[in-house]
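testing teh design pipeline on a random one, pls ignore if ur not involved
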């Protein structure tokens, strides 16, 4: 084998795992395509000692720390296939070649699939946001929209009412809220609009107006959006591990997937996408991988 462990994904979970494995003197290859899901996010929050820092700056410092360990190598590239071979795995990297390892850690994150509304992609993670614990404090007491519907809209509005009293649910079509939910929301002076959206007017990602199909415009400081998610790579089909109903990789408490020798950590395994949470998951995965390697060799 070329390496003890190949880590696919060099963001927070992957780098955290690499740090632990590097300190365990393991030969590690990190393969990263350089497209983290938070690349447009201006500031990170709820991560001790880094509250308010740029995510790219945190990742850059982490990479520098990890690469101080001589047994860790970082490769910029896109992993395009994975296969199980005798006592290990082979990973093929686009325009580079193939590498083998005894264990695999997937830290590939998630791909956010946004509604097809003009301007939304440019605002994503800047003023079109998804998590009140990440972004809520920065837009507290402001006029906020919720681009969502049904049960999720109700639960999000209930949570956001702690930060914002001026809330408008933008169902982008017929409301799927039930009678009791609608009554409760109205009792809290939360508006429900069923008009279809066609555009988010913005300046460098900062939302100015939501434009409706009927031509009306409403000004919001920010809107919360619930995107669909996809895995960046479909290695579950190649390596035989399971996904959950939420399309995340199914793992146990040790970050093991349902395929032997394959671990996963970070956003690809959970919708709770806090930096502190996914960084810790990377450390757990690394400890469990190292423990498994020790048991095999002792």
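output:
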């Amino acid at each position: 084998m070329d390496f003890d462990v190949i880590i696919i994904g060099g963001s927070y979970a992957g780098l955290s795992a690499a740090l632990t494995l590097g300190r365990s003197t393991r030969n590690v290859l990190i393969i990263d395509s350089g497209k983290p899901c938070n690349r447009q996010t201006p500031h990170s929050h709820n991560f001790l000692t880094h509250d308010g820092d740029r995510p790219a700056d945190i990742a850059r410092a982490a990479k520098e720390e990890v690469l101080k360990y001589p047994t860790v190598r970082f490769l910029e590239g896109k992993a395009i296939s994975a296969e199980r071979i005798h006592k290990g795995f082979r990973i093929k990297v686009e325009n580079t070649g193939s590498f083998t390892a005894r264990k695999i850690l997937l830290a590939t994150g998630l791909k956010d699939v946004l509604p097809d509304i003009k301007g939304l992609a440019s605002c994503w993670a800047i003023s079109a946001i998804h998590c009140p614990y990440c972004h809520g404090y920065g837009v507290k007491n402001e006029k906020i929209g919720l681009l969502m519907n049904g049960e999720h809209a109700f639960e999000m509005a209930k949570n956001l009412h702690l930060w914002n009293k001026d809330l408008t649910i933008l169902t982008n079509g017929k409301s799927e809220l039930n009678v009791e939910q609608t009554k409760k929301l109205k009792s809290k002076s939360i508006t429900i609009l069923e008009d279809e959206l066609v555009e988010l007017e913005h300046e460098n990602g900062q939302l100015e107006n939501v434009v409706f199909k009927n031509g009306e415009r409403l000004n919001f400081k920010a809107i919360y959006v619930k995107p669909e998610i996809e895995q960046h790579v479909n290695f579950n089909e190649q390596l035989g591990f399971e996904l959950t109903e939420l399309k995340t990789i199914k793992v146990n408490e040790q970050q093991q997937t349902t395929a032997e020798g394959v671990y996963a950590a970070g956003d690809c395994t959970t919708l709770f996408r806090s930096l502190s949470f996914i960084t810790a998951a990377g450390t757990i995965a690394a400890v469990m991988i190292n423990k498994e390697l020790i048991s095999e060799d002792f």
